[in-house]
Amino acid sequence: MRKINITLIAILVLLASCQKENLKNVSPADSGDDDSPTMITKRSCGTQEALQQQMAEDPTLAKRMDDIEKYTQKVIKGELPDRLVNGVITIPVVVHVVYKTAAQNISDAQVQSQIDVLNEDFGNTNADNSKIPSLFQPVDATVGIKFTLDRVIRKATTKKSFGTNDAVKKSQTGGDNAVDATTYLNIWVCNLSSGLLGYAQFPGGSVTTDGVVILYSAFGRTGTLIPAYNLGRSATHEVGHWMNLRHIWGDANCGNDLVDDTPVANTANYGCPSYPHLSTCTGKPTEMTMNYMDYTDDACMYMFSTGQKGRVNAVFAPGGPRAKMAQ
């Protein structure tokens, strides 16, 4: 079991470090001039890249996130009360479809299919959870979050694509403004550049940009979708970040994802690794490649752990950064 030692410096290093593959594939401030077909060869998440930009623009963000982490650890250790709601927390979702072409203006059916996937994955009713190896079955978790589609907002844009600079979240830069992010989960669906499947904002950031962004052709499980990313797991992964979950490898070689029951991993895993996939980190544990917070293909990620559930619960607990959504 991993010992979690939280200090402000450690959190800054963890949160500001961007995984090397993302640095090669993600443009920090996309010009919006790339309208070539998206070719995705392996999963790429822009959450850490977006965080770097937000920290550079807001020097107070690091302190807020450090305070949230200290609060989270106290809730997990039982020093502060867990969330008051028994059972399931229901989160209303606003989906912003920001489109330039007819293909990007995805159907209501595609939007609903993504809501269905989120409910299955966070409710642990996904059919493929039967594939979880016996080693990890004891920590397989039902997170207990339900998602309801409040509305779909469609916004035409002249932008050919968006990057991680949050332009899609602002009407004045070709996107669409968030709808009360203190009570709604805002999800923007658009054409993303640089091979990105999506990115999210961790708790603690600006309410004007809070939410998740997903590539239109990796959203849901019906419609015109990219092979290997056609089961809606890109949104599951990014919503995990929005709920304060880190990448399974901690964005560093043998890094710390701040969860005790996820084995230490060397780095991101891609495709569909054969089981068991052994780490070369201390103890050479079997990596939890099927965790939603890894980089494997949609068909090969199908579980959250009990420790990850604890972090999510702390987000919605009284005094947590998203407690208002649990009321």
How does the SSE layout of this entry go?
Blueprint: H1 8-16, H2 20-25, H3 47-57, H4 61-76, E1 89-99, H5 108-123, E2 145-156, E3 185-190, E4 198-200, E5 212-215, H6 233-242, H7 306-316
Parallel strand pairs: 1-2, 1-3, 3-5
Antiparallel strand pairs: 4-5
Structural category:
alpha/beta
Fraction in beta strands:
5-15%
Strand order, biggest sheet? Answer: 2-1-3-5-4
Large-scale geometry: globular
What is the share of helical residues? 10-25%
For the largest beta-sheet, the strand count, sense and barrel status come to: 5 strands, mixed
Order of helical and strand elements: HHHHEHEEEEHH
Please work out how many helical segments DSSP would assign.
7
Radius of gyration: 18 Å
Q: Name the average pLDDT.
A: 90
**Would you count the extended β strands for me?**
5
State the end-to-end CA separation: 34 Å
Low-confidence runs (pLDDT<50, min 5 residues)? 7-37
